[in-house]
């Protein structure tokens, strides 16, 4: 099937690559000519495991092309995805200008039936807005042309985006006509083979499903972080508690890891966007507010622990920091706890020596030539003559480090671990002063 996708960002790019892998003829449109040019040469602008192979494969088979030419892309396909960004506005609501602009562009060039599929995360009611933008544009062109709008939210996780897209656990489609539903079934036929994964509903419910999913996941994390803070005060170990509650299948083991707060381009943004939507319909969403507040506080936990370890005597110290991305297997640092911690440390007069396997360049761009922040090429180099080590992201290479070397390199054998990677008993035996989250003082 011929498919066009507007937006060569995380969602659009992964979707384009995976749909071309299963044999669809996909054109991906982006407004950035340099990005399009690079993509056509197989150069991927983001770090995402497995994506480069798929893109190169799609290009060489001639099933995947990148273009800046919107008109060509609109003529190319009956099914057109909108997968452009919806960054937060000043008030936290999703900024829909890019989505609506694409809708207008589609209507500007379409002359026959199209199904316009919204993949971007958009507030409830956006499907209806897209519909009216298209209708108005067609009217102003004096063109009579049938079309459908579909909501098809994306549930992929950064760092596992390709695998999530190749093996989705559900495909949510919000549709209003059988014609559009059948086209959606055709697009996803390959993924729906072994058992039914398509969950069909109305457009507004599909839009809310996306927010409800992310907000539920964020709620689980903030809840666990609250339990971890409580466990610390009560002398309990959150790791035992996590196993104790996760064994109940109604709760489950997934996504209940406490830590130093959630980040990324989705949870913080989506909680705020749904809070905004709630306000618009005069609903006081108390749980959502609390989830956000708990998370903001949790991002300060590491600094507070360091402050406590050194009895407030932080000026002039050097801290080694492992992990800058908001989670492992990505170079993305949007809303990352590492940035909150770095800012607090720099403000307190502390020098930071930081290492991350992928996100050094991103952080380098954010801080420029900040003298008190050194980004090292090896995790071991970050440790040299530092007063303590702080772990912010649970990259695999931090799981079994050379503890002897850590002890030799640091001025004091202090580890503050925001991801509970090590056993407090083992760390004690090794002679470390070790602080996890929710694991006792
Ligand atoms: C999230 C959702 O998990 C995806 O299903 C969704 O499609 C995506 O947002 C989106 O809306 O596009 P993502 O932001 O890539 O995916 O990352 P997650 O793996 O969900 O992690 C988010 C944050 O939660 C990270 O900072 C992570 O460290 C933290 N986290 C996760 C915890 O603190 N504890 C956990 O148990 C799990």
TrEMBL record:
The keyword Oxidoreductase applies. One of its GO terms (molecular function) is NAD binding. This is UDP-glucose 6-dehydrogenase. The keyword Chaperone does not apply. Residues 320-424 form the UDP-glucose/GDP-mannose dehydrogenase C-terminal domain. NAD(+) binds at residues 30, 35, 86, 121, 158, 269, 334. GO terms for biological process: polysaccharide biosynthetic process; UDP-glucuronate biosynthetic process.
């Amino acid at each position: 099937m011929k498919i066009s996708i507007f937006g060569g960002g995380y969602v659009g790019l992964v979707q384009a690559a995976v749909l071309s892998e299963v044999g669809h003829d996909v054109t991906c449109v982006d407004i950035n000519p340099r990005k399009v040019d690079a993509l056509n040469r197989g150069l991927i602008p983001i770090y995402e495991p497995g994506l480069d192979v798929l893109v190169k494969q799609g290009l060489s088979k001639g099933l995947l092309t990148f273009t800046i030419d919107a008109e060509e892309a609109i003529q190319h396909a009956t099914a057109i995805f909108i997968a452009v960004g919806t960054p937060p506005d000043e008030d936290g609501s999703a900024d829909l200008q890019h989505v609506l602009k694409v809708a207008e562009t589609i209507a500007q060039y379409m002359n026959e039936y199209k199904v316009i599929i919204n993949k971007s995360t958009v507030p409830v009611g956006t499907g209806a807005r897209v519909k009216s933008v298209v209708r108005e544009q067609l009217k102003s062109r004096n063109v009579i042309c049938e079309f459908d709008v579909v909501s098809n939210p994306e549930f992929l996780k950064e760092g596992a985006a390709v695998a999530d897209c190749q093996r989705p656990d559900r495909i949510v489609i919000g549709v209003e006509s059988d014609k559009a539903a059948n086209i959606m079934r055709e697009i996803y036929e390959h993924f729906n083979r072994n058992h039914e994964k398509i969950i069909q509903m109305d457009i507004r419910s599909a839009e809310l499903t996306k927010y409800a999913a992310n907000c539920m996941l964020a709620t689980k994390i903030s809840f666990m972080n609250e339990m971890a803070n409580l466990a610390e005060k009560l002398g309990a170990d959150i790791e035992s508690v996590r196993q104790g509650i996760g064994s109940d299948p109604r709760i489950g083991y997934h996504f209940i890891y406490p830590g130093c707060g959630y980040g990324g381009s989705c949870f913080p943004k989506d909680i705020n966007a749904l809070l905004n939507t709630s306000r618009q319909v005069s609903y006081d969403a108390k749980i959502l507010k609390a989830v956000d507040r708990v998370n903001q506080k949790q991002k300060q936990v590491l600094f507070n622990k360091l402050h406590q370890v050194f009895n407030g005597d932080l000026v002039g110290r050097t801290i080694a920091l492992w992990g800058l991305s908001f989670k492992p297997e990505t170079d993305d640092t949007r809303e990352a706890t590492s940035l909150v911690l770095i800012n607090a440390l720099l403000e307190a007069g502390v020098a930071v020596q930081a290492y991350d396997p992928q996100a050094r360049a991103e952080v380098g761009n954010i801080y420029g030539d900040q003298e008190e922040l050194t980004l090292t090429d090896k995790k071991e180099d970050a440790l040299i003559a530092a007063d303590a080590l702080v772990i912010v992201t649970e990259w695999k290479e931090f799981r079994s480090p050379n503890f002897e070397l850590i002890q030799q390199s640091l001025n004091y054998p202090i580890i503050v671990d925001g991801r509970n990677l090590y056993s407090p008993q083992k760390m004690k035996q090794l002679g470390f002063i070790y602080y996890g989250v929710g694991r006792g003082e």
